[in-house]
Amino acid sequence: MRILSDYDAALKMAINDSWAFKSLGPKFKNDKKFVLQVVKKNGRVLSYLNSEFKNDRDVVLAAVRSHGRSLMYASDTLKADKEIVYFAVRQFGEVLKCAHDDVKNVKKIVLQAVMQNGNALEYASETLKADYDVVFAAVCRCGQALKHTNSFLKNHKEIVMEAVKEDGMALRFASISMQGDYDVVSNAVAGSGKSLIFASDAMKANKEIVITALKQDKNAYAFIDNSLKRDGDILTIIGKMGAFGM
Fold first, then answer.
1. Which of 113, 114, 187, 232 has its CA 20 to 30 A from that of 241?
2. d(Cα 175, Cα 171) in Å, to the nearest integer?
3. Biggest CA-to-CA distance, the chain
4. What is the mean pLDDT of the chain?
């Protein structure tokens, strides 16, 4: 069996335990070759590096490729580096929050972020929050990311349909017009019966919509129009699904 050298032992320890890196002496902490080997395997260690390494492009790039969240510990200069941010958001979309504002307006980067986590749309530039491609990608990943776009896209049927298909409760963030759209509401309640609460009064009085909602979640009964609460077909569905307090 090979006996580990001090270097090998320190390397193994730092890779396996980020906290252990703090206990190492300057011989290792100030050695770029050593640091690079560590962050390539354990990007979290970036948080424990000195300011010089946090501003070293090689080190930071290696760190974010290993662990996207480590972007938050990079220097302000490198938070504006497009390649570094790109690889960071591929790992962890919401770390876009830490990027420089200029980078938040780069479509390629923001697309990568929202494809990893739709909620990263919150941190995009106002321009890209209104970009069809970006918003479509975001709501496909997380329907409720719809809340971060503008009023125009909240009223765009294709966008809203994708959002409610991914998460019926995204209906909450759709425009009033879309909350009264049969196709949109039908898809929303099919995935989440309780999303009926966000539908228009006309949809709450639509028997087909209500039946779809109840079949998904009988508790949607609380949100239906009074005109349907004693409907025979509705009560039959409720009865088949078990006891329900009315």
1. 187
2. 8
3. 81
4. 94
